[in-house]
Amino acid sequence: MQLANRLDRLFTHWASKFAAEQRQYTPLVSVEELHKLEYFTSFPHQAIFPVALAENDENLNRFADDPVSAGGSLKLADTAPVHHCLAPAACFPVYMSLSGEDLPATAFITLRSLCFRKERQQQPLARQTTFNMREVVCLGRQAEVKEFLQTFRQIVETFFQRWSLPVRLERATDPFFNAPTNRKYIMQKIAPLKHEMVYNGELAIGSINFHQNSFGDTFDISYRGEAVYSGCVAFGIERWLFALLDCFGTDARDWPEFDDTATG
Amino acid sequence: MPVDNANARQLLREWIGSKAGSAEQAQITDQTLIIEAGLISSVDVLELLMLIEELGETEVDATELEPGMLESIDRICETFLS
Q: Would you state the pLDDT for residue A252?
């Protein structure tokens, strides 16, 4: 926990170099808004929903009489309509909240959120259904967003080098469902939109993402009347913990002063 | 029969022009960076692949795509239609 907080302070310090505004959202995301992003066709295998029972006595009694199977799973009765999804990423609510706005200046926003993704396999810290994500988001002109992403790339690469962490920035695509027929997957293949921070050649602990104007188009956000571009840098806090504990051990006294913000 | 190279370039220019705004249409050349310049977006990319398949009478495997392959008419012709 102590190391997780130190890490988040470091990420927040990096965000402060852009005077990023701190925001916080509930980890429930509107199904209607996520659908605009084609999330359910792109990542149906990762979506997790908060489900409640339909509120009628017969249904509730049926559930209450025999709620759990011998295998330990819920025996769901009829469910109420599902209008929310558990947040799969921290930054989506940022674009949703800016819907219909014309930005007067480049926006830098940072937020930390609990995120949820269905994983086939679980591994503590490295691959969890529930995890914390810190993101820094930029919305503005294309050139400004690219400069923001490039600057962040330099910040993290300097950090990895300074502490001899075996992390490399690698081009990547998201794990799309039915990838070859998904237009977003194809865009990630042909344009350098996504780079992951890959620890030891196998674990993505963060990513740097250029969205072009896709979020702006989807949510009708503009920048001084023109198309707005966006990009984000995401840090998976548990995965960073995994990497640092793997490198420096579990004794806090052995950890270097990696979060010295006076020099970082 | 696949469409010959000159016609393929013309059809690609017309298709890209139909996606771009009127101001950009006249300036599209075979070297224009069509994605970088925002002339086509992810909304259009599947349609572009289908057009390339039609022009070249070939099948494009999306998993084999590499960065830059669709960046301009020159690169598209060189990669898929030569």
A: 78
Binary contact (A190, B71; C-beta < 8 A): yes
The partner residues of A207 in beta bridges, in order of sequence, read A196, A234
Rg (CA), chain B: 12
Q: Under CATH, what is the fold of the domain B5-80?
A: 1.10.1200
- Buried b / exposed e across A111-137, counting CB within 10 Å, b at 16+? bbbebbbeeeeeeebbbbeebbbbbbb
Distance of alpha carbon B70 from its chain centroid, rounded? 6
The answer to whether residue A34 sits within a structural domain is no
Q: Please check whether residue B5 is in contact with residue B18, taking contact to mean a CB–CB distance below 8 angstroms.
A: no
User: Could you give the percent of chain B with pLDDT greater than 70?
Assistant: 96
What is the number of alpha carbons within 13 Å of residue A237 lying toward its C-beta?
A: 25
Higher local confidence (pLDDT), A246 or A3: A246
Query: For A256, left (φ over 0), alpha (ψ -120 to 50), or beta?
Result: beta
pTM value is: 0.88
**CATH code, domain carrying A105:** 3.30.930.10
> Chain A closest CA to B20's CA: distance in Å?
14
**Most A CBs within 10 Å, among B33, B34, B42, B60, to test the A interface:** B42
Q: Across chain A, what does the average pLDDT equal?
A: 94
Tens digit of each residue's pLDDT (9 = 90 or more) over A209-224: 999 889 999 999 999 9
Question: In the structure, what pLDDT confidence band is assigned to residue A233 with cuts at 50, 70 and 90?
Answer: very high
ipTM entry: 0.79
Average pLDDT, chain B: 88
Spatial distance between the Cα atoms of B29 and A220, rounded to a whole number of angstroms? 30
Structural domain boundaries enclosing A216: 2-25+88-254
Which of A42, A190, A213 would you mutate first to test chain B, the one with the most B CBs within 10 A?
A190
